[in-house]
Structures are given as structure tokens and as C-alpha cells.
């Protein structure tokens, strides 16, 4: 709905699939030397699939999928959608959770079939004194070493399983990052996900600087910190959790495939969600500025 509220800054921008909020935006691109990129949904497709379920000794896989799937069905997170979809396929109809709550950047919690269930980062489970048994700890490390995101499932005081999901890097991301580098910009990968997963994605697309395990509310502080170091920061993101960082950045770029919150907070929208257009946008505004001068 929001793109209609945006001004199309230049005809050429519109042709390239870039919506520009106002002419003053072009000016902000002049000094930009750093591009902070959100991982999920920006560098990667953000469409995950469940690839593995590892249960703790004595746990039933169907039960794990039923409880975790029911809870995740109530969340819009890409991980949640992957879990809910796979659970519905394998165990059929899922119950409706009670007392559902989204714990931003950590996971979800709620009551399913009378059990108090948690799905999310091991840190979320640890807050409830649910620590991973050794077999799950190993499965988690193996998944992360392979560049995959793994979340833990626990209920009634005990961690019960690890769910491994896989996301894929967009086919255009590596080229986009090479183009941003060619423009003299330093790319930085920013994510709430685990360090090992972040490193693996970064290596795949040619990024060296990685800032991982950042809670949604802290993404804006990362941008502020880089600015305090004297860097002029462009931020590219898609999620509700990227909105504050997009607004704080010297130049905010939202994926048109992302949330309304991100699009509203950004200066520019990349309509098709193709990261290569971020390089086009910076090239276009530099050229436009040169013509104005
Ligand atoms: P990103 O910064 O990559 O977009 P988020 O900040 O949305 O990631 O989430 C960070 C981490 O929190 C995820 O990698 C996952 O481990 C956990 N998490 C968040 N929401 C959920 C959920 N609904 N189900 C399971 N895990 C979740
Ligand atoms: Mg995201």
C-alpha cells in the first residue's frame, strides 16, 4: 500500500525499479562509504524450508512437529512459516495455541495441548532453564557449521528437539556486492542470526565484515556506532526489525518485497527486491548529482 505514498524521484529511477522519497535523498548518497545489509530476506531469499528434525533421546518427532508447528503457525517469521508448513504436511491439522507471544529476535512461546512450549534461539530456552542435552548441542553445532539456521524446541521445562531450516542466498546477491565494492563501498552483514550461519552466508557473497546475533532493537545502535566511527552508512533491509536502523542510516534502502514498516522508514525502495538495484540506485544518484552541479 505504501509505495503509492512515495514520490517517484526521477523517471530513470522508476525505470530501474527504484522509488525515491524525495529529491533530497540523492544528496545523502554522496558521502556513503559503508553498506549495511540485513541477512534474511535481503541477501537471502528469506523463504526457508525445514530440512531436519533432531530429537533428544526419547522424544517423539511427530509430537515435536505438532507442538512447534502449532505455535509457529501463529508467527509470520520466515522460520516459523517453514516449521508450520512442514508440520501441517507431516502431522495434519494443528491445534490453536493459547497465550501466544512473539519474543522479538528470540522466538515464540505459548500453550499447546496443555504444554508450555518454546521455539527459538537456544538463548530463549536457556532463559527458562531449558538447556540443550549434549546430542542436541552437537546437532546445533553441526547445522550451524553447515551454514544453516537451527532453532530449539522445548516444553514443560525441558529442551526436546532441534529444527534445522535452510534459506538460500539470492542468485543476484554476490554480483550486487561486487558492484557495491566497485563503487568504493564496504559491505557489512548485519543479522540476528547466529555467527557461524552469518559467516557462511557472508563468505558465499563476498562480505568480510559480519555483525551477528544482534537483537532487533539493537540494529539501530549498530548503525549509530558505525556513524560514530565516522562512516557514512547506507542500510538495506526488509523487516519490521530493520525499520529503526533504516531511518537512522544516512541512506535507508528497503526491499519492495519487504514489510510496510521497512518501506515507510526508508529513503529508497528497491521495487523488485533485487539487491543489484541498490548499486544502480547509488550509481544513478551520483550521476544525477554530477549533472546538477
Ligand atoms: P534476521 O536479523 O536475520 O532477519 P531475526 O532478528 O528476525 O533475524 O531473528 C533472529 C533469530 O531469532 C532467528 O535466527 C531465530 O533463531 C530466532 N527467531 C526469531 N523468531 C523466531 C520464530 N518465530 N521461530 C523460531 N525462531 C525465531
Ligand atoms: Mg530480514
Automatic annotation (TrEMBL):
Q: Where in the cell is it found?
A: Cell membrane
Q: Which domain of life is it from?
A: Bacteria
Q: What family, per the record?
A: Belongs to the cation transport ATPase (P-type) (TC 3.A.3) family. Type IB subfamily.
Q: What is this protein called?
A: Cation-transporting P-type ATPase B
- Its source organism is Streptosporangium carneum
Q: Which part of the full protein does this chain span, and how long is the full protein?
A: 411 to 703 of 752
